[in-house]
Design a protein that fits this description.
Length: about 150
């Protein structure tokens, strides 16, 4: 059946074209984490879970601290998380914060749905270009990306 082969080839080509279009529309940052890699500054404490791993005084003292997010490590204060996973998911904002963090999402200023990034030792939430929310020991911080150091 020559017609069947031609139609099948057309469908396959159309499917491959659609797949190529979808792959090209994915943001590069979502596939290589370029949107999160770099140096960040914790600018303010947003909120905390009902049960946190450090006293609020220590949590407030972290404001102004630099965070390094790199392919092989996540560094905050003097603590380093080696080999973070940076697994991404898109979650319903209120439900994910209620279920995972036992905290309200109302003060976070995050979009709904939110892109959540599991770094293995913490969670990162995409807020806007150059802005993230970092969860650390039960506290949630606003963070801004710092300019790269000039060489």
């Amino acid at each position: 059946m020559p017609g069947h082969s031609w139609a099948s080839s057309r469908r396959r080509a159309a499917g491959l074209g659609l797949l190529a279009t979808l792959l090209c529309t994915l943001p590069a940052a979502a596939t290589d984490n370029a949107d999160i890699y770099g140096r960040w500054s914790l600018t303010r404490l947003l909120d905390s879970a009902d049960i946190a791993a450090m006293p609020e005084r220590e949590a407030r003292a972290l404001v102004g601290t630099q965070v390094v997010i790199a392919q092989d490590r996540f560094v905050i204060d003097s603590r380093t998380c080696r080999h973070p996973s940076y697994e991404r998911s898109v979650d319903d904002l209120p439900r994910s914060f209620r279920e995972q963090g036992h905290v309200s999402s109302a003060n976070m200023g995050l979009p709904d749905p939110v892109t959540a990034i599991d770094a293995r030792c913490t969670h990162i939430y995409l807020k806007a270009p150059g802005r993230i929310v970092v969860q650390w020991d039960g506290y949630y911080y606003d963070a801004e990306k710092l300019k790269p150091i000039e060489k």
